[in-house]
Please model this.
Amino acid sequence: MNKLMLTNEAVARGAYEAGVKVVSSYPGTPSTEITEFVAKYPEIYSEWAPNEKVATEVAVGASIAGVRSMCCMKHVGVNVAADPLFTAAYTGVNGGMVLVVADDPAMHSSQNEQDSRFYARSAHVPMLEPADSAEAKEFTKKAFALSEEYDTPVMLRLTTRVAHSQSFVELEDRVEPAPKYFTKDIAKYVMMPAMARKRHLVVEAREDKLAADVNESELNRVEWRSKKLGIVCAGAVYQYVKEATDASIFKAGIVYPLAIEAIRKFAAEVEELLIVEELEPFIENQLKAHGVKCHGKEIFGKQGEFSSASIREKLYGVKTPAPVAEVPARPPVMCAGCPHRGVFYVLKKLGVTVSGDIGCYTLGAQPPLSALDMCVCMGASIGMAHGFDKAESPLKRKMVAVIGDSTFIHSGITNVVNAVYNRGTSTTIILDNSITGMTGHQDNPATGKTIKGEPTNKLDLEALMKAIGVDSVVVVDAYDLAAVEKAVKEETAREAVSVIIARRPCALLTKKYPPAFKVNGDKCRNCKACLKIGCPAIENIGGKVRINKELCVACGVCTQLCKFSAIEEGVK
Model:
């Protein structure tokens, strides 16, 4: 049976067919849907972990217990997962273990263009890279087989275009491997220095064997066309190259270890060897180091993602005709009724310096709010605020960190512990919208529901803050501008660490909204004060303000800005 599938869904299907028992992940675009689809299979235990390090450790533990396990994340998540991953490469596996990573060339929803292939090389674990949904399913199954054959974690790499593309997949039955049982083996599973030194030798021997065996792998293939030009590529780029050129292609299904000798043979058959790969010259540099004459990056560069049109233009100078009409840019904005909007309005009004974090609230950096001053990675806002505080800047009492509830659990808690322990005076605002918003409404430990919607213990953020030594914890309604302003003024004046929890559920969690607000033209003085919050439901048409009833969720924040009471509730 064939089914049209999103590639992320195909990875989940591959895990199902491979007999996987445990999947632990942290949501991150473009990888999120993999675990959401996994959760639909009752045969697989699945969960959202607090962060990628925890998810990887859960997968390692399940693997050692003897079952096949998987963890999924986006590229920056591998930075968090690297600690257990690198040492799991030493311990090896019992049941097969696969780490799925989705890279984001062109940074559609990310803060950098990190190339995860280098993690596979650095951790000395193999990495597979499919080019479509059908391959994604088969490569996932093959990854588990390789994991058990070579006693190693295996990485499966997607990129945004592959993860979110669709193609037909042949569905097969689930096959559960024969059960494996944990056998106590300190030399293999306890990585104290004496054991780790010996296991490092095992890793090197395994890598040498993989490097030799990969030259015969069916996951790599050659497609002979014109021998004037030969191209080495992988993943989504393979699809572009196949469409844009008539060159012969060496398609690398395994991108680490690279099939050096197989590519060397391929190179001998073509007049020119070109490496076409997004981001870093990962394949190109390895081939050059092994004496294979090739080139590529001087043509294509290291930034952004490719397309058939861009490859055709770079190679042949053929430009794709420009569209007749330019499509207007539509940068992302916070939704109408977003509870973060009022908080950022207050912070800008008070002239507070703000260290931001990764999530919907990062959009608070954009006009007209322009409230964020710095943002690096998940959880960093609190640490940066503490560092700003310790730098003894003249602004130190007007420095706050903002962070979402899911991100706070991901990697913000330890930063508050650090600030309390080291006698800081920074203020953190937890923007608690009761969900993991930016990646599509996934539950987290503070929502009281598991990935399958089952009720579970709900993390009490207020009690947690008190437990780690925060003396002042204030909870406010994020829609109440006066309460938010009062809390910010009072808490930033303290000589100790303080936390404000600005709580209001994401406006998209419910579709049952009161009637939209409207502008009373007789009362409106056209002062435009309501436009300062940047709500997409408030429109400036022909110099007159109106509220788009199709967008308004009746949050009421705009009514607090109008001095003339011109914004009124709609009629039921």
Q: What stands out?
A: Residues 129 and 157 are 5 Å apart (CA to CA). The longest strand covers residues 226-233. The chain has 19 helices and 22 strands.
